[in-house]
C-alpha cells in the first residue's frame, strides 16, 4: 500500500491535541491501549502519545484490528482521498463505489465496474491494493457499514431498513459483517444512542453531514441564489434546498448550515418509501453538491503558490454542484454567449414549461425537465438562436438514448464544445481539476491580476498597445502554465476567479 503521509506525525499530534476540525477525516487516531480509533476532534481525554498510532483512512485503522469510537463516530467524518490527483482510475472508482455501485439491488459486478473504467478487473484490484490498502469489495463493504453506523447513531430507522438503505440484500449478512468488521452489533449501537437520534417520519429522514472548515457559506449561498430556479430550488439565510431525481426515485432535500458544528443538518423527503433504498446514493450526491469532502488545507496551499495570477484567496470557497450532468449541460448551453442573468431567465422558462410539478411531503415542488421531455419540445418559449435550441434538443435526445454515456461523448453533438463539456464536468460531476481557461471572466480576471503587478512589463506593454493577437498569445501560454501549477485543483481556481470579478 502507498502509505506516504501528507503530514508528519508531529502535525497529527498537534492537530489531535488541539481537536483541529480542519483535519477531520484527513487522518484517524488509533489508541492501541483501548483498541479503538477516533477522529482528531474526539471529545474524549487525549491518549498518551506512546499508545497512539496514526492512520490515513478509517479502513486502514480497522485493518489494524481497531474498532470505531462510539463518542466521536468516525462514520460521520468528511471523506478524504489522500491520493487525489495521482490516480484518475482510483478516484473514479471510489466515487462510484461511494455511491453504492457495488452494493444493493442494482449493484454491478467488479468486472463490470472495471469495464466502465476502461481497465481490467485485475488492474483495478492492483490499484486498490496500492492506493487504498484493500480490495474494491473490502472498501465497498466498509463504506456500507460506516453509512449504516451513521444511520444507527443519527436516526430511529428500524435496523432492517438500515441494512437495506446501506446496500445489504439481507439482514443476516448485515449483522455478520457488522460484527466481523466493526466488532460491534447494530442493536447495541441503537440501544446506546436511541435517545439522541432523530425520528424518521414516513418518506422522510434527517441527517447531519460534516465537513472540514473553512467553509465560505456566503459565497456558496450567493452563487446558488443568483442561479436558482423558483420552486425547484429554495434558499434561506443559512439553507439551500432543491428537488432531486435519481432513477425512479424523486423527492427534495433542504440543507441547513451549522457553522458551529462544521456540518449541515439535512432533511430529505421522498415521494414514497422506495427512496430509502437509494439513500446512500442520494446522500453521496448531496455531499458532492455542497462539496463537503474538499480538503481546503491542501487546495489553498496550492492556490497560494500562484503568485500574481491569484494575489488574494477567498478562504473557504468550494464548488457549488448541480444535481445531474444533464441539468448542468442544459445550464451551460443556455448560458452560451449571454449574461448569467439572461441564462437564468431562460432556465426558469425551460423548467416552468417542461418540468413537472408534484406534491411531495405536503409541499408542491418543481422537478427539472427530463431528457425525454426536452427531446420532444418545440422550445418556442425560449428567445434564443435556433442553433442553441437545436443543441439543447440534440443533447436531450443523446442523453435519452445513452443515459450512461461519458460527458466527453457529448462533443460529437453540434453546438457543444470543450467549454460546455468542461462546465458540466465542473458542476455536474464536481471534478476538482477543471480550470475553465477559455471562460471570459477567468481570462479577464487572470490578465487583470497579472497586469496589476508593475514587474509584468511585457503584459502591461501589449495591453497599452491594444495588441489583441499578442494578448491572446500571452494568455494562452500563461494559462497553460497556471493550469499545470494548480493541478489537480483547477476547479477551485475557477471559482476563486469567478468570486473576484
Verbal overview:
- The protein is of the alpha+beta class.
- The protein is built from 21 helices and eleven strands.
- The protein has helices spanning 9-18, 58-63, 88-98, 110-117, 121-131, 136-154, 159-165, 171-182, 186-193, 217-227, 279-290, 296-303, 325-334, 340-354, 371-375, 386-401, 418-428, 440-451, 457-464, 468-486, 490-499; strands spanning 28-31, 36-38, 52-55, 67-68, 204-210, 233-236, 239-246, 249-258, 263-270, 356-360, 363-367.
- Strands 5-9-8-7-6 form a five-stranded antiparallel sheet, with helices on one face. The protein has a four-stranded mixed sheet with strand order 3-1-2-4.
- Helix 6 packs parallel to helix 9 (186-193) and helix 13 packs across helix 17.
- The longest helix is centred in the N-terminal third of the chain and has 19 residues, at 136-154.
- It is globular, with a radius of gyration of 24 Å.
- The two termini are 44 Å apart.
List keywords for this structure.
globular, 5-stranded antiparallel beta sheet, alpha+beta, 4-stranded mixed beta sheet
